[in-house]
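hiii so um. not sure if this is the right channel but i have a protein structure encoded as tokens and i wanna go backwards to a sequence. like what aa goes where. can anyone help
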């Protein structure tokens, strides 16, 4: 079974990778009080270059190896294009979306159709659509009110069929259907009466299911004689890394990612009915990730290990030499995004930190790695900072794998050694169950170009570094997780990268929460903060989680705090930034999407109201047509124009004038426009 997407949405990482415009333009700049201003670059990189649409993005080679697809603008909106592989003159748009654009697409295994997902203004009620490449007909395969498509699978033995989870019967649970791709007709495979997810065998039968117990553990069931029978359990300590990847070709066993009896996640095989798995691949340092299977035989082929940067490893003997060649041709980040049905070609996303990302095609038979396209060619003509992997010790001796980017003027050799201190932005990732990785980061490039160093920290609870590291974050929101960020700040000061009074904190989702925590729990630590869709009250956050997160509710309770117990409720209150709003002393900028189903608008509304009542300055930016993060390039441009002016006022960095960056945006400044110089004026001319 080829699993395309499993939509287990948690508080996730926000930002789409932005793109470029046709021409790089020179921009005037405001004066700053940065150190050694004579060494500043002569021009700013326009925000439009970093946060606008890319020339092309999300490349895919079709399963038959004859065609390619990608997302590219049509009248300024990202749409899907299809053409012959490598022949861009033959590529034409197969969608004509004029709204927020199409965020994700993939191919049917028979190469006859292209699928894409889309929600409405960020509400995350994802629908699955298909495009008939012969006729151009587009059909919604999940045309039901309020439905959210999930767990989308294909199997090469069943051409013309896609498996989709839909929650139209009960918003909490996704029933699993076979859907005829041509007609859209669906037939029920299994009704979901309380399982987190199902694993289908290669005959499209639901054979294995996983359920979250009240203690946060994962209980695995196996179906026999039309009944679900308990098979084995995975404790809460192991559940964060546990995942069943699929069946073997003979439907006799399953492949899993598993941390039981070990710290880091291993790829294992477990025959049906057995309880002792066989390890296939593992590392003592990091989790096994990005496992690739043969699309036809379902045999595991390769995997990645990602400490500072990902390194690929072969499982199949035939791939040992080709993958050695692949690694020799990679020096930055890399992800395998698609495979041809015969596994001869892989679509590989590659990104250096200071160059445009490139989609490449890897020939598994020869080891050759060739370019498909460069996403942002103009980027390569610019002076960009280099990202450096660093390992920072926490106060309790954990290794915090982090990424440091220093402005060119502070580190002209770009070796990660600052010649003088510069203001620093602590950029905190979302999740928290995710991680920062090496590669091209438009936020980091934007900030370093404005004169700020950027530090991205994989604090405890970040994934990929073993279960002990993840579980060290349990019930440590605004506790040890925040201490890790403070320790990283102190490390940067000790290294001469920045000074104590020149550090801001910024992030989205959990990173937004970390920003609010930074300004409330440690009010002297940061000069200002930028919070994007961050929760301010953990009690109301858990009360308002989407219904389709029901299977993860106990996971949240065990990791954050259980509101149903006196102790848990007290912990949630103590760790909520709104409880400590009186302690805010430094400037705050908040960005929010009105349709956010994860961190609802009320999370931003309530802390802004609390600050207003206490006459604490805050600027609140709201987007009526956005959800958990900002998807439309016009909205990204407008928000980062505001954030740039805000940070410039706070830390003294360079500022590109707002200009026409509000054009086409739905931006509304609900409160506090007067606290950012020039903002009210530009809103009046929007």
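sure thing!! here u go:
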């Amino acid at each position: 079974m080829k699993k395309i997407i499993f939509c287990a949405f948690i508080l996730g990482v926000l930002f789409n990778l932005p793109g470029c415009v046709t021409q790089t333009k020179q921009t005037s700049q405001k004066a700053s009080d940065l150190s050694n201003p004579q060494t500043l670059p002569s021009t700013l990189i326009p925000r439009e270059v970093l946060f606008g649409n890319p020339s092309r993005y999300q490349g895919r080679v079709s399963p038959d190896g004859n065609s390619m697809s990608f997302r590219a603008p049509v009248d300024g909106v990202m749409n899907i294009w299809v053409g012959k592989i490598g022949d861009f003159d033959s590529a034409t748009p197969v969608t004509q979306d004029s709204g927020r654009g199409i965020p994700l697409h993939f191919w049917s295994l028979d190469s006859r159709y292209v699928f894409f997902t889309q929600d409405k203004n960020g509400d995350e009620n994802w629908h699955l659509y298909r495009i008939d490449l012969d006729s151009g007909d587009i059909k919604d395969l999940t045309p039901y009110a309020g439905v959210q498509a999930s767990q989308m699978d294909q199997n090469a033995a069943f051409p013309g069929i896609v498996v989709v989870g839909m929650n139209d019967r009960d918003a909490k649970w996704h029933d699993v259907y076979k859907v005829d791709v041509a007609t859209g007709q669906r037939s029920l495979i299994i009704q979901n009466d309380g399982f987190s997810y199902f694993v289908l065998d290669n005959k499209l039968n639901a054979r294995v299911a996983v359920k979250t117990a009240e203690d946060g553990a994962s209980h695995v069931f196996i179906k026999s004689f039309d009944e679900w029978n308990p098979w084995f359990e995975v404790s809460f300590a192991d559940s964060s890394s546990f995942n069943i990847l699929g069946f073997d070709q003979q439907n006799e066993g399953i492949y899993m990612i598993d941390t039981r009896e070990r710290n880091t996640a291993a790829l294992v095989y477990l025959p049906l009915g057995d309880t002792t798995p066989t390890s296939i691949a593992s590392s003592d340092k990091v989790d096994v990730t990005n496992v690739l299977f043969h699309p036809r035989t379902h045999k595991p082929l390769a995997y990645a290990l990602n400490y500072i940067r990902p390194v690929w490893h072969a499982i199949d003997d035939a791939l040992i030499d080709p993958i050695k060649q692949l690694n020799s041709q990679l020096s930055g980040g890399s992800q395998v995004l698609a495979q041809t049905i015969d596994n001869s070609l892989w679509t590989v996303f590659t990104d250096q930190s200071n160059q445009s990302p490139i989609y490449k095609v890897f020939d598994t038979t020869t080891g050759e790695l060739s370019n498909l396209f460069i996403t942002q060619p103009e980027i390569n003509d610019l002076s960009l900072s280099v990202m450096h992997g660093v390992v920072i010790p926490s106060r309790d001796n954990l290794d915090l794998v982090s990424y440091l980017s220093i402005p060119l003027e502070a580190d002209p050799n770009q070796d990660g050694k600052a010649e003088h201190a510069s203001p620093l932005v602590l950029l905190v990732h979302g999740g928290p169950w995710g991680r920062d990785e090496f590669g091209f980061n438009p936020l980091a490039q934007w900030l370093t170009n404005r004169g700020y160093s950027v530090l991205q920290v994989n604090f405890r609870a970040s994934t990929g570094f073993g279960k002990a590291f993840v579980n060290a974050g349990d019930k440590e929101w605004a506790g040890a997780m925040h201490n890790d960020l403070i320790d990283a700040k102190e490390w940067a000061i000790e290294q001469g990268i920045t000074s104590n009074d020149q550090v801001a904190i910024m992030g989205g989702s959990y990173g937004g929460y970390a920003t609010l925590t930074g300004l409330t729990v440690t009010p002297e630590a940061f000069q200002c903060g930028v919070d994007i869709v961050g929760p301010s009250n953990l009690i109301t956050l858990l009360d308002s989680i989407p219904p389709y997160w029901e299977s993860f509710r106990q996971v949240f309770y065990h990791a954050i705090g259980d509101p149903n117990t006196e102790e848990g409720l007290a912990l949630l209150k103590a760790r909520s930034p709104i409880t400590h709003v009186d302690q805010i002393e430094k400037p705050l900028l908040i960005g929010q999407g009105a349709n956010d189903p994860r961190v609802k608008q009320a999370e931003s509304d309530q802390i802004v109201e609390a600050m207003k009542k206490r006459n604490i300055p805050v600027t609140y930016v709201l987007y009526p047509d956005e959800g958990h993060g900002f998807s439309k390039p016009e909205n990204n441009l407008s928000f980062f124009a505001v954030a740039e002016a805000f940070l410039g006022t706070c830390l003294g960095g360079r500022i590109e004038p707002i200009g026409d960056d509000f054009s086409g945006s739905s931006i509304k400044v609900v409160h506090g426009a007067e606290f950012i110089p020039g903002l009210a004026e530009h809103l009046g001319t929007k």
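oh and Residues 195-282 form one domain.
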